[in-house]
Records
---
Amino acid sequence: WCGSGRKYKKCHLGREQLPLPERVGWLYAKAAQHVLASGWTDLLAEAGFERGRYAGEDPDALVAALGDPLVLDAVLFEGGAFADFVAVRGSLLPDDERLLAEQWLLVQRSVFEIEQARPGHGVTVRDVRTGDLHEVRERSASRQLKPGQLICARVVPDGQGMQFFGGIEPVALHERDELVELLDSEPDPILLVAALSRRFAPPLLVNTEGDPLAICEATVQIGDPAGIEAALDDTYDRADGEQPPRWFEHVITDGLQRIRATLVLDGDTVRVEANSDQRMDRVLATLARLDPAMRVLEDSRRPLRDAREAAEQLPVTGQGALDPDDPELAGFLDEVIRGYETRWLDEPIPALDGHTPRQAADDPTRRGDLIKLLGSFPAGVAAQGGMDADRLRAALGL
């Protein structure tokens, strides 16, 4: 069998070695054990904390984060633990595993676009930084990945082909260029894990000026009640016929007039309501300028953490509630959406590297990104009440 003249069971039984592609998992597991046994656990815990930063008060969040493949892989490669493993224990590895490990040290994490998916078998990916194409053997993820999708991963050789190691992170189109820039800077594992974990952060609710939403209420005692009414008339817009008198601060955003703050004068006090810290600070500063003797009696501010909490602040029944079946309201909202779509076509879009959709449509190097961006929008019936990708495509001639 091998030329030794000895029987197989004497020469080779129990000494068989699996092909290298079937041993890459063992090689990775050996490196993982090195992390746990050789002084890398503090860095691993710090990376795990970043991965679980947005898990809230879940007591098991850190344990789950430490089991996330990105955390270990970032410590191994961006953190230097794998290089240490090869330097310290490389001589103990079989020759082919050691050579493969040395190849892995040369592979950088990158952003890839899925070119083709073969469910249950693998994917073809294009490195957006270099343009290189790779055929990757991947059974499970290939059932979920779709052409055009962006991912962040490490594509490494396995002795026969290529495999993903260290997890597969989805990347939004508007995050692509920033992530590529981060990878080019050779980040440490904490920065990398933090950047790739921001997708777990709860959505930030903002008003039309981009300020984080908050319920802000303040009561101010006026030093000159007789003079403040005229000063408020000169500064804000008075509501007709209301007692006690009420004023609004208005701002124009997206072509519509919106209320920034409400002020009510009641005797020698002014009650102020606004929906962000910035708007409240602006009004209080104005009142201090109009009446230097004024004094803030109460100032409460409560951030709105999510959409459900914000919805609870809106009237749903009784006077002031909106009727979603009102044809006039539906027509108004449709007009607003179409107007916003028209303005959107000429606004700089971060996902298009600051170009407007019209500019991207006319630029062959940007048109692909625009098509992907529009593909992420709902269209037709699914777009009811929001921007319609079909209308946008028609407006752009796509």
---
Amino acid sequence: MCVPPVSPVSKVFSNQHLLENILSYFSNDFMQNLDVRLVNKSINNTFLRLIRQNHRRMKIEYICEQKKIEEVPKDYIYINYRKINNQNVQGYFIFLSTAVGVKVEKIITKRLWMLEKKFMQRLHNFIHSQLIGTNGTHIQSVIGLEEICDGCLQCSKIAKKCRDYGPVRFDTLKTMNYSKNYEKLHVSDKLFEVIAEYCISNSNSKKECFEKLNNTIPSRISCNTLVIWINESRFLPNGTANLKYDHRHMPREVIDTILRKWSVKSIQLNMIYFTSEGLCSVDWLQYDYFTPVRLNDPYSGTEKSSDLKFTRVDVRMSDSIYCVRGFGNHQSELQEPRGYNNFIPNIRRLFPTDNISIDLSHWYCIARKDIEKRISTILEVVTMEKEQKLRLNIKFFVELPKMEEKRKEEILKIAPQYIPREITLHCFKKSLELNEKKGFNEEKWIGKRFQVEDFNLDVYVKENKLEEVKNLLHEYPNSFVNHFFSDEKRN
């Protein structure tokens, strides 16, 4: 009996790996490609499985111009970097929870508080009902959702189930009377103020205030990493002098009490240009109960903690404007200096550690000119206080200028203390075009390490930009870019 030959199409359908590779191009934007499911059962099952995999972690964000809060919000949001019209969000979530059967483990929301109020509240409820579910069986991490509700009952229940949660609002904090160790717990500078003012308003003396503070901070929870969201653009109430937007003072004793009672092992600082908690509470400053501290105050006035020590402090500046702009620049060269040259010494006083890692922004205030000068200036800033036993790692992203636009005399050598290491690094970063029509791009960045004792500066350049300047480097022998091709020269 003659066996009919297997058609090429059948071979594709029977090759699961090949089928997944083909369908991955459709599943990323699956709402536009649902007809693919109708081809056959094999394709439908594979298509749904890929969607489930891609939506275990969900990022839901509203994007606006960084320096501007829009009066009329846009009518769309981004879900996993795909633009979705507001009117389609509910159907999107229902499809995920019913037809796909997605089991969401991590949800990150960003700037959803800027949406139109009614839709914002509906979106909050959609996330709970369709993605998290009544029991939150699979959820492990929820970040940013309380920016919408300021700590509702639904969110406080989910906080108990997560390993990574926050930023915690005060109403949720008051429900944390259970025993639990969090991998990460997020708090904000505003929460510190709220706690301070709550304790002051419920006491008649400094002693009573600190007793209230001790009773207010839950003692049965702990966290491996405390993530502190610091708003760079907070403002004081009307009628108060000095109304400029800035990072504001925090009550130190509140911070220290949290660090001790929660047995915090490491710190993460998220420097954010603006959050939903812009308005400062200033009543606590009228009392001498709490010590006001800031990370950009002159470090000589910040007292060192004597009994605290952390394994590491990680600083994230991907959403920063003022800190990332002020860090690594001479204050005299800034139009509006904000004191962030004090950043590292203040970190070591507030959060004593021998290991600091700083991830600078890859899209805002990125160095585009005088790059060699910036690299040298960073060294001056990080060594302004001669601290011992500090391991410091900085990710520094640069945009290469066109070589023909630079004059040879403008090319400066990197500070001679830097020693280039034979270490090639890489990372992938997503960015959104300004007109938003092209959507998010994922670009590969190539890094080279420059070292001064225990300080590592990892300088990253877009891979495609390196290729553009490669043939021009012989004219610029002093440029740091030559180090990116050192391996080729040796070969």
---
Amino acid sequence: WILLDNILVNQLFGVDLGLGMTVVTFDWTQILWIGSPLMYPWWAEVHIFFGFILFFWIITLILYYTNTWDLAYFPLNNSNSYDRYGNVYNVLAVLSASNRFNLTAYENYSPLYLPMTYAMTYILAFALSTCVLMHMILYHGRSLLNGVKKIRVEQDDIHAKLMCNYPEVPDWWYLVCFFGFFLLMVVVVEVWHMAVPVWASVALPTLYVLPSGFIFTMTGQGITLNLLAQIIPGTLMAGDPVANMIFKAYSVQTLMESTSFVQDLKLGHYIKVPPRATFLVQFVGTLLASFIQIGVKQWMFNNIPDIYTPNQPSFLTCPHNEV
């Protein structure tokens, strides 16, 4: 409401297309966007706060106002992607009739440009994908090695002693679940001819489950594979966006569900819920949610007019799926 026509002021202090530098909110829903500050250690919150200021309020502005990658011609902060004419990117213009990437059409149309904040998100995601592995090796490598050797590195605390009264989940329960759902994944890929390398979509979350678990346990912030799960299939299955998204869904959801399951086991450990009960509740809940979620989404697509369009009356615009 101040200096509405001033571009610089709106870029710095705007909350829609700007960086929101003056926004202070007491809306708990907004505060909880990255997790409850009442539950996470203070040093993790400090890292998040100053990391945000450094990368998005300082480095992003430097890159933007120096017109790095020609991105100063586009909005500073937005969830859309753009073409060289400054319009929202028309994805259909670079797809063939069979929904495959058409390189000739892409070269004739335009490269894809991202707003600078979105580009910074990609930069940080690439950095994160390697630094979490090195962090685990440097800071937790010895603990992992001792765990593999089954060497006890510390005494059981009171929680571990009390939980010894409950039988652990047998390994074969996990193996049956893994191989059962892995076979279902193979069947889906082969029957519908999706050409997705299932081994790679499983290997990626397997590689990151321990680093993500360490970070999530200490900070409450989970690690996602969004970028790697796009780049790797984009290289292995070049030109096939459907297979790319299926690969991403398998990889990202596998890691997210793994860390969520470990989180529930940890909670059960502290409140003394038997591990087998936690396992069964998670298994049944996940199985039911798989069918219910797909059913609800299919109903929404069939019955809600203009869903996933910018002017949808109820704001069901699916902003997280635009890029």
